[in-house]
Amino acid sequence: MAEEKKFRTEHDSIGTKEVPVEAYYGVQTLRASENFYITGLNMHPELINSVAQIKKAAAITNYEVGRLDKKRADAIVQACDEIIEGKLHDQFIVDPIQGGAGTSLNMNANEVIANRAIEILGGEKGDYSIVNPNDHVNYGQSTNDVFPSCGRITALKLLHGAQKQLNRLVEALNQKAKEFDHVIKMGRTQLQDAVPIRLGQEFKAYAAAIRRDINRFENAKDEMSRLNLGGTAIGTGLNADVHYLQRVVRNIAEISGLDLIQSYDLIDATQNLDGYVAVSGMVKTCAVSLSKMSNDLRLMSSGPRTGFGEINLPAKQNGSSIMPGKVNPVIPEVVNQVAFNIIGNDMTIAMAAEAGQLELNAFEPIIFYNMFQSIETLTFAVRTLVDNCITGITANEERCKQLVDRSVGIITAICPYVGYEKAANVAKEAIRTGANVRDLILRDKLLTQEELDTILNPYAMTEPGISGKQGL
Question: What is the mean pLDDT of residues 205-225?
């Protein structure tokens, strides 16, 4: 026979409610869980850790300024440390998307920390005379400075992880740039033959684009390092000790190991969420760079017999349930899809930031949900792109050479010597008849064989100053 579930009675300003006796969360968390079953997901683990770090910093600071006794402060700090270590995460039961500007998460943290601190002090969960979620754990704070601050701290941590993967990508791309530096292929503009380029140059260009994204992420981290912690409800610091306000960000910086500073204008930092829009834009920009690169990889590997077929992507899985031997570019495809989702998330973040009114924006929960998803999925996409694609790419050198030799695009190099009109006439005849460009130039005695060998040297066409009229 199943054991009968036991409850304790808790009350808040709405009324009384039965809470499971073993639960560390309380009545306000339970109401939020019932009100906001939206995604069916839990809070991001790093967000839980970040809010626990803030509560730890607040307890230490309130003790330092004489607003919290040592016994309660020590118990709260111990409870926070346990959460930071990964314990009690299952007690954070509120949905990531929630009304109330993040009050549900803040109270979830306050109640879990309070009840664990009560246990540490020898009491029973729910006896808030020992440690109170509002009066002790939340002292000198408001959801309106705690929630934005823990969101920024979480974004900082995730951005750091993304940068590590992007640095790996740059390293892998540069390695391929060296490996493929001698491979001459046809460059294309608007998917039409242009002029020769080295495959290594293309990979080097990809690395340069990603390096810019890494630099942008440094700016993003700077945006996220400025906290409105200490501003309480609307940035005026009401109910916070003035000495607490001056010390709390310094303490959270020490606890988290992050470079954090207090916002210059706490009212502005509480009202305006443009920093999130800027950071989301930087993440979106990186996603666009990755998606464009993935498009190129899919094109260059297309075929393998009837497409470009210039490179081979690693075969990772069967490409069809009906076509034997078919292998698809699944890794670039998943990177494309991640990018599409990030671009959509960016729009959501922009609209949520715009929707604030007066002294507070109530829509930070959806901003955090989308921003964390964007940064994290980008991180995972880059990791699989490096491990399962870039490092295993090989070049079809002979195929690349064949396409260059057959291309009409090399005609561009003779323009300085014979003029645009004559070169265009040769190009048109070559396209119409399928004749070789070199043969037509020699037939019409536009250039000598020796001149052609110098001018139409494919490698020379890939570097400025190697070929040119002044050299003849």
Answer: 97
Categorize the per-residue pLDDT at 79 as very low, low, confident or very high, splitting at 50, 70 and 90. Answer: very high
Question: What confidence tens digit (pLDDT) does each residue in 320-367 have?
Answer: 667 767 788 999 999 999 999 999 999 999 999 999 999 999 999 999
Cα–Cα separations (whole angstroms), residue 431 to 230, 289, 444 = 72, 34, 16
Residue 470 CA neighbour count, 13 Å, CB half:
3
Whether 469 shows a pLDDT value over 60: the answer reads no
Say if CB 28 and CB 12 are below 8 A apart: yes
109-113, 132-136, 190-194, 431-435: range with lowest mean pLDDT: 431-435
**371, amino acid identity:** M
Evaluate if residue 471 carries a pLDDT over 60: no
pTM exceeding 0.90: yes
State the DSSP string of 146-210: HHHHHHHHHHHHHHHHHHHHHHHHHHHHHHHHHHTTT-EEEEEETTEEEEEEEHHHHHHHHHHHH
Structure tokens at 269: 């930092």
CA distances to 5, 203, 401 from 2, rounded to whole Å, are 9, 63, 75
**320 has catalytic annotation:** yes
Residue 120 contacts by C-beta under 8 Å, 6 or more apart in sequence? Answer: 75, 78, 79
Catalytic residue, chosen from 320, 374, 407, 467, is 320
Confidence of residue 304 (pLDDT cuts 50, 70, 90): confident
As a whole number of angstroms, the distance between CA 377 and CA 373 comes to 6
CA 65 to chain centre: 38
8 Å CB contact between 396 and 390? no
* Residue pair 114/77 in contact by the 8 Å Cβ criterion: no
CB-based contacts of 78, cutoff 8 Å, min separation 6: 116, 117, 120
Q: Is the pLDDT of residue 447 over 70?
A: yes
Q: How far apart are CA 310 and CA 306, in angstroms?
A: 11
Q: What distance in Å separates the CA atoms of residue 254 and residue 161, rounded to the nearest whole number? A: 20
Could you tell me which of 226, 311, 203, 242 has the C-alpha nearest to residue 67? 242
First to last CA, the chain: 98
Give the pLDDT of residue 464: 80
Position of tokens 């704070």?
Answer: 141
Could you please report the per-residue DSSP string of 50-117? HHHHHHHHHHHHHHHTTSS-HHHHHHHHHHHHHHHTTTTGGG--S-SS-SSTTHHHHHHHHHHHHHHH
Q: For residue 335, give the nearest of 407, 395, 400, 390 by alpha carbon.
A: 390
**The pLDDT value given to residue 470:** 45
